Amino acid sequence: MKITVTIDEPTGDFQKRLLDLLAEHAANVETDTAWTAERAERYYLALPIRARRIVKEAAARGGYVDASVLRDGEDSSLRGHSASLKRAIDRGVRSGWWPDGMQLPIQAQGPGFGKVVGYSMPKHLVDVFLAAAKRPSRE
What we know:
Blueprint: H1 12-24, H2 37-46, H3 49-60, E1 64-66, H4 67-70, H5 81-95, E2 107-109, E3 118-120, H6 126-134
Antiparallel strand pairs: 1-3, 2-3
Helix pairs in contact: 2-6, 3-6
């Protein structure tokens, strides 16, 4: 049996009771964590402008953007952008835009704690995020 439930803007009490019910039956519940066009657009719009550029450039370039492309103009630092990409995921869970467990659609690439060498997006997400970035009236 498959049941799909979509609830837009649930009240706090209803959301809590529903989540408690789902948790009670967690062994039989499969959560949809796929990036859809709507989810990608919400994520994109929740990002600060500079982080949006990272997502847009990576999607436009087939899933990878080198840091040198992003380091232009007066502010060439990419410091802090990885955090904003993650915070948008967390904010979406808290806001009920998507369930907990969503895959981060883009990740910083580098030698660890240090200078970012680029950002990578899984190939299967490129089209949905490119469409989100190209929607009219963006940036």
